[in-house]
UniProtKB/TrEMBL annotation:
One of its GO terms (molecular function) is protein tyrosine phosphatase activity. This is Rhodanese domain-containing protein. It comes from Thecamonas trahens ATCC 50062. SMART domains: RHOD. Pfam families: Rhodanese. Coiled coil: none annotated. SUPFAM superfamilies: Rhodanese/Cell cycle control phosphatase. One of its GO terms (cellular component) is cytoplasm. Residues 22-131 form the Rhodanese domain.
Length: 146
C-alpha cells in the first residue's frame, strides 16, 4: 500500500495575501458538504467531500489546465488550497487524495495545501475586514460536477 503524500498546511494569512493579490493565481477548493450553504470564499471550487471520489479526476484535470493557463512552473507552482469547515478531517483527507491523484502527482506545477483552521477560522477572522473575499449566494462559486 502506497504511503499517502504529505500535504502542508497553509496559514490563513498566506491565503489572504494570495487572494488579495490579483496577480497571484490561487485556486481554493471547498470540500464542505451541507455546511457549504453558510457562505464560502468567493470563486472557490465546491466539490463536496461526499462526491469527492467521483469528481476528483475532473477536478485534477481542471487544476492541471489552470496551472498551464496561469503559466505556473516547477519554481512557481499554482497553489491549490483545500478546506472544509475546520480542516481537521474532510479537508486534509481530500487534499491528500487529490495530491496522490496521478494527474496531480505527475504535475509539479500544481501545489496542494490545506487551509489551517478551515473556513470557520478564515471567515471569522477576515470577513469583517475583507467582505469581498466571501460570498453567500450558491451561484458565486465554481461548483465542480462529478
Amino acid at each position: 500500500m502506497a504511503t499517502p503524500p504529505t500535504v502542508p498546511y497553509l496559514q490563513p494569512d498566506s491565503l489572504l495575501g494570495l487572494l488579495r493579490d490579483e496577480q497571484a493565481p490561487v485556486v481554493v477548493v471547498d470540500v464542505r458538504d451541507d455546511d457549504h450553504a453558510g457562505g464560502h470564499i468567493a470563486g472557490a471550487i465546491w466539490l463536496a467531500s461526499r462526491d469527492f471520489d467521483a469528481g476528483m479526476t475532473s477536478l485534477a484535470r481542471e487544476l492541471v489546465q489552470r496551472a498551464a493557463d496561469a503559466g505556473a512552473s516547477d519554481m512557481n507552482p499554482l497553489p491549490v488550497v483545500v478546506h472544509c469547515q475546520f480542516s481537521q478531517v474532510r479537508g486534509p483527507s481530500c487534499a491528500r487524495a487529490l495530491a496522490a491523484h496521478p494527474d496531480i502527482a505527475a504535475c509539479p506545477t500544481v501545489q496542494i495545501a490545506i487551509l489551517k483552521g478551515g473556513y470557520s477560522y478564515f471567515s471569522r477572522r477576515y470577513a469583517p475586514t475583507d467582505p469581498d473575499l466571501f460570498a453567500d449566494d450558491e451561484t458565486d462559486d465554481d461548483s465542480c460536477s462529478a
